Amino acid sequence: MKAKFAIHPTQVDVINASFSPSQAEIEYYSRMVADFEKAQNQEGKAAIVFENKMVDIAAYRRAKALLSRAALFDQNQL
Hints:
This protein is mainly α. The protein has three helices and two strands, in the order ααββα.
């Protein structure tokens, strides 16, 4: 699920908290993206093993999407 309907403004913070990625997720996917990009740029690899898990372009794109969503939540916290 990517959206939730709020009937009162006081619900927005609770909804945002439930949809925003945790700090642990942000750190994990940041490392994954960095390792994938390094392997792709330096070695031309299309898949890597990251923390005993295979990461391909689809997983990389999901990680990038999660990090983009996390950035949006950070911007809205200002």
